[in-house]
# Entry
Amino acid sequence: MLEAGGISPLAGRRIVLGVSAGIAAYKAVEICRRMVDAGAFVSPVLTEDALRFVGAVTFSALASEPARTSLHEGGETIPHTRLGQRADLIVIAPATANILAKQAAGIADDLLTATLLATRAPVLVAPAMHTEMWEHPSVQENLATLRRRGVFVCEPESGRLAGGDEGEGRLADPSRIIAAAEEILSRGRDLSGLRIVVTAGGTREAIDPVRFIGNRSSGKMGHAIAQVASTRGAAVTLITTSSIPVGAGIEVVSVTTAEEMRLAVDERFSDASVVVMAAAVADFRPKVVASEKIKKHSGAPEIILEPTPDILSGLGQRKTHQILVGFAAETENLEEYARAKMEAKRVDIMVANDVSDPEAGFEVPTNRAILLDSMGSHTRTPLMSKMSLAEVILDRVAVRLGRANNRESQ
Ligand code: C5P
# Structure
């Protein structure tokens, strides 16, 4: 996918092309050539075993600098930090089950894995392996971990595999990998310079020292928004009740109750450009919290509830320049209720989702939503991963901040 005028988003960008040891390693030669043709500065890094499939000389001849394999060659003392810090993008193609496992575990035992730890650049992996390996739960769990941390995955295709086998696990066609790299780089760091506060998870309101009133929110949607915003260059504070790990560079503030969340958000509001209230804040809490565990033999307790502070409404009243994003989890009259909330709470963008849909809403990794904008626009998304929906929501935020045409990296 080329930008208008025919210049590829790869032009002038530094790309580390990681090649691990799969039969598809020969296709990385083509990927390298296409990247260089598009004007990228390509540094190939091969694993030791990849050299059994392809020669370093081939990559050295095509790329912008000699291919490397080891942390200890070429007289450079810390090549991984140079490669990692300067990269605009790291692409691993093919990515074997082994490299994905090392990446997920943070193992750094060769130049490629050390470079992966020494970078803040986006990372795109293109897995390739036999179907049995691709479908193995450990591979899929490692990929889920990597996705959660913001790693982009170019899914393999179905087709001929090594040894004459057929099935899913064949490296994505080089044109798809190049298109994915272009997509990532064209999105770039369009949110850099912005402070974004994201809330996530369900709050817990104590009844006594062991019991609470809670809800089914897992925090996945909010954590995905925090991760994507950080990858796109924003300084992100994530105020959360969930312990799902997020990437380095995100400030995490752990809270439990609606009141703690309100205090944490309020403290950061004046410095924020955007607040995304993805948290499912309890609407009511027990008026009195028992100081000792309520005993069963005392009979069923009567718990009197009182409303919690509505954090978003409070922000809507106080906002000066901030863009406010709210969520409306509904089970009926989705759009109507969401629009009413958007107006009542003075929210700029409302993300409405039907939580009675088993593929959307609470706990699941996927979502589909209607995005309402107070300026009048209205978008209905198909079913997608929460990471992808995070991209769509932040695209709309970028439009509201006048950054939509500013997607090339600054
Ligand atoms: O009114 P409702 O709870 O459905 O509104 C949902 C939106 O308002 C979400 O963005 C949620 O984070 C926010 N909210 C809040 N404080 C509350 C309740 C909801 O900020 N007490």
Summary: The pocket of cytidine-5'-monophosphate is lined by residues 258, 277, 279, 281, 283, 308, 310-312, 326-328, 341 (CB under 6 Å). Confidence is low (pLDDT under 50) at residues 406-410.
